[in-house]
Structures are given as structure tokens and as C-alpha cells.
Amino acid sequence: MSAVQPRHAARESLAVRIAVPFGVLFTALASLSTILGGIEIEPAAAQQPPAPAAVLRLPAVDVLAAEAVDPCADKVVIAALAADDDDAAVRAFGGGAEFRADVAAGSAPCVSLDDPNRIWVVVNKQRPLQPEGFAPASLSGTDLRATSLSNEMLPEVTVALERMAAASAAEGAGTLGINNGYRSYDVQTRTYESHVIARGQPGADAVSARPGYSEHQSGLAFDLIACTVECGMHEEFGGTSQGEWVAANAWRFGFIVRYVQGETGTTGYLPEPWHIRYIGPELAAAYHHGGFRTLEEFFGLPAAPDYAH
Ligand SMILES: [Zn+2]
To answer: What is the distance in A from the centroid of ligand 1 to the CA of 209?
Structure first.
């Protein structure tokens, strides 16, 4: 954490001061004058009738508008983005809730939800990776038990996953394994085509992303499995103790369950309790505490129930 004070601290204290209407100040001064007994504080001012409502509103509006500073002009934000330290950039906004609010309001042009190299990228059926053939700069494999060869993710995601898996075991939920982590554009092409052959295109689109449209291609997502002696299928994960624990606790490690029950109309996917997406600890905490259920809702994006073509 940077030693520099988050930008919002100054903003909030200023806003609080300014938001106090003058009428309240007069009343407070009058009370203070009474409390202090003999010490008179501007008795003439305290006895004045309240100013008309229109007059009371003007100063607050003017000063608050002037205080609406561009978060992207903040030196700490600029430095964190330049260093590719996404979580530090979120903290520099004042934390996940402030970051989310600024992005959703369109007041943070330095934050691109299209950038596949950022933890806040949003990939869905309306928002392919850009470019569609994107591949992460670096990947690292996990030591967790894996039931496919796709056990790689971005290094910081691998670290967070292994911390989560250790906590799941330590807190009695059981052993986590991984089915699929990173899938390249080419692998996703084969995955999707196998679903098309098995189910037809509409059936495939309900369960598998088209190449260029999968979170797995970003290196930020993976599919979990529950392991005892053997590891189960990822489709079985939701009904396990590990699945319940992950649904409740993934946010502590920077993750969200990306496709939840009842949100197919927004995400375009049936529920996938096993598909976990990394957004970093700051954003995941804001997502959890804010009660959000989709990344689209979180960032104020339109629903993406289907492809544009
Ligand atoms: Zn998945």
C-alpha cells in the first residue's frame, strides 16, 4: 500500500463540510452560544431568521461541482496504472466501491473495461477480447490437482487460487482442484466446435464461449473441481462443500463466481458455480459487500444475453 493518502479521504471530508447547510450552522452557533453561557458568539447572526431555501442551496452546489476532480489526473492513480499494478490503482481511487462508482458513471476515462491486460476487463457475448486472438504476456501453472492440461493462469491469479485452496482445506470445506484455467484462442475454437457438433450452435452458445469471447482466454478465469480421493467433474462442483464454501468465500481472495443463478439474461450463460473470475481483492470486496451478482451490473454495462451476430 502506498504511503500516499487515498484521494477520496480529502474529497469526503471536504464534501461533508460543504454539505452542512448554513441554516444548520446558524442553529449550531446559537446552541453553542447557549451552552457557553456568558460567552456570546455573534448573537446578532444567531438570531437572524433562516435564509431562503434557494440561497441555502447555492453555495453547496457551486463548491461541490468545483470539487469534482478527475480521478485520472490523480498522481497515485497515474503511477499505479503505469506500473501495471491494478489493485493499487483501485486503492488509489479510494477503494473498490469508489472505483466502481467512478467507472460506472463514466468519469474514469483512464480505466478501459476493454483492456485484456487489466483485472477489470469485462468479456461477454457483446464484448470480445480485443484483439480476439489476445494471449496473456505471462502464465504460470498451479500445483493444485488438475484434470486437464489447461492448468495455467496469470501468475497473480495462480497465487490467489492457491491461497484460496489452502483456506478451503484449512477451514474444513475440502480440497480444491482445477479443470480448466487459461485456454488459448485455438483451444477455445476446438472446445466450442466440439459443443456445436454435440448440441448445435444455440446449444453450444448456452454453455461455451465462442473463440475470442471466453474469459478463459484472458488468463483471469478457471473452472474448479472438488477433490477427495478422486476429483469430480466441474459440473458437479456446485453441490459440494467446496462449491458452497467458494460461493461464500471466493471474494476474500479476489474472486467472483461469474455466472450465478437467475442472471442468464444478463451474462448469457446458465449458472456455472465452478467458473471463477479474478478481479483482485479490492474489487471483489466491493462486489461482495455491494451485493452485486454480475460484472455487467457492477460496472453499469448493458446486459449481454447473446452475440450481436
Ligand atoms: Zn469456465
So the answer is: 9
State residue 211 phi and psi, 5-degree precision.
Answer: -55, 135
* Residue (of 186, 127, 178) closest to 157 by Cα position: 178
* Per-residue confidence in pLDDT tens, the chain, 309 aa: 444 445 554 444 444 444 444 444 444 444 444 444 444 444 444 445 555 555 455 555 444 544 567 999 999 999 999 999 999 999 999 999 999 999 999 999 999 999 999 999 999 999 999 999 999 999 999 999 999 988 999 999 999 999 999 999 999 999 999 999 999 999 999 999 999 999 999 889 888 899 999 999 999 999 999 999 999 999 999 999 999 999 999 999 999 999 999 999 999 999 999 999 999 999 999 999 999 999 999 999 999 999 987
CA of 158 to the centre of ligand 1 (A): 15
Distance, CA of 252 to CA of 164 (rounded, Å): 8
254 CA distance to ligand 1 middle (Å): 17
Write down the CATH number for the domain with range 140-298.
Answer: 3.30.1380.10
Q: What is the pTM of this model?
A: 0.79
Which sequence spans correspond to the domains of the chain?
7-104, 140-298
